[in-house]
Design goal:
alpha+beta, 6 helices
């Protein structure tokens, strides 16, 4: 089912991540609390190159996840990642998560564009019916990017995650294929 692919947007390319993408810069992103402060599964760990390579290799071998490198079209730089997974094939649903590791690309619409490409891929190529995402309170940029792409807030998980000496709420968002098709349909005629 899974094959390497490239998805192309106006400012970026999403390509299946490779082991060659695992380098010191990638490790630095994962160890920088300013970058990972909202990444619940990443932020409480110290990362090294071997661990990053093992993670990427496991996703490459998985039938239930696809990890894309987000690449700036102009500079051809790997600036972050976006993942679909885990995929629940029996229920045709999956989770979407992402981060932009290169700060100079923050606030420029890259996350929103990456989400748009992955949503289209998930619904049209993978045949999914539902995509969902969790956004930790305070991560207004991610929340806006998902909402801009048609995701709707479905719930609030109060004080779901501990970060440093405080608890954070988690907003649960989702987009259904028919909602996306209605958003994507040409207007007027």
């Amino acid at each position: 089912m899974k094959a390497e692919c490239d998805l192309s947007g106006s400012d970026l390319i999403l390509r299946t991540i490779s082991i060659e993408d695992c380098n010191a810069t990638y490790v630095d992103w994962l160890n920088n609390p300013e970058i990972t402060g909202f990444l619940v599964g990443v932020r409480n760990h110290v990362h090294d190159l071997d661990g990053v390579r093992r993670f990427v290799q496991s996703v490459l071998e998985s039938e239930n996840a696809i990890l894309f490198a987000i690449v700036d079209r102009q500079s051809n730089r790997h600036i972050g990642n976006i993942k679909i997974g885990p995929i629940d094939w029996s229920n045709e649903s999956s989770h979407v998560s992402l981060f932009i590791g290169e700060r100079e690309f923050w606030g420029k619409g890259y996350a929103s564009q990456a989400i748009s490409l992955v949503v289209s891929y998930g619904f049209t190529k993978l045949g999914l019916n539902r995509l969902e995402a969790g956004v930790v309170d305070g991560n207004s940029a991610s929340l806006k990017a998902f909402l801009r792409n048609g995701f709707r807030e479905e719930g609030l998980m109060r004080r779901a995650f501990k970060w440093r000496d405080d608890y954070q709420d988690n907003r649960w968002l989702a987009l259904l294929r028919d909602e996306w098709e209605n958003l994507s349909a040409p207007r007027g005629a």
